[in-house]
Write a structure and sequence with these properties.
6 helices, HAD-like_sf, alpha/beta, 5'(3')-deoxyribonucleotidase, 5'-nucleotidase activity, 173 residues, 2 domains
């Protein structure tokens, strides 16, 4: 049985799509997700990145993110074979904590509170695998880092890549 640490934002919850949706509602401009590929997170929109980053501090942003396809089914199956923890560096956005708890309760009710870890730095995480979309979290990780594909990380080649939750299932189930 392996211990698997899974990031929320960008891995379970579609942060990029949420930014696109919020931007469209706010400014009436639909940004194509493909136009964001290879660009740092919060960039690639017609307005400067500080405007997009400000969404992260607005009530409801974390609570209403779309679920990434197949994540619910695969994570439930992973729990049957492995020890699974949801690990989020949520302390940067303290107001996100209750929203993330509510979001997990709605979309992943099978994950108990004992298996949810909110932290500031993921350097404390000890697991066999970590599935994350950010280099900064995978670089110091001592286990096997799995880079979950997101527009901001498509050029990263330092880690084994998983493009979808079906890729995760093929690797860990």
């Amino acid at each position: 049985m392996a211990r698997i640490a899974i990031d929320m934002d960008g891995v379970m919850a579609d942060t990029t799509q949420q930014m696109i949706d919020w931007y469209a509602k706010r400014y009436g401009v639909q940004v194509d997700k493909d136009a964001l590929y290879g660009k740092p997170e919060t960039t690639g929109f017609p307005h400067e990145k500080d405007i997009i980053r400000s969404f992260l501090f607005e009530p409801g942003f974390f609570r209403t993110k779309p679920v990434i396809k197949d994540s619910q089914e695969v994570i439930r199956a992973l729990q049957d074979k492995h020890e699974v923890f949801i690990v989020s560096a949520a302390m940067e956005f303290p107001a996100s904590l209750p929203e993330k708890v509510e979001w997990l309760a709605e979309y992943y009710p099978f994950i108990t509170w004992q298996n949810i870890v909110f932290c500031g730095s993921k350097t404390i995480v000890q697991a066999d695998y970590m599935i994350d979309d950010h280099v900064k979290n995978l670089q110091p990780f001592k286990g096997q880092g799995l880079m979950f594909t997101a527009p901001h990380n498509v050029h990263v080649t330092d880690f084994k890549r998983v493009d979808t939750w079906q890729d995760v299932a093929g690797l860990l189930l």
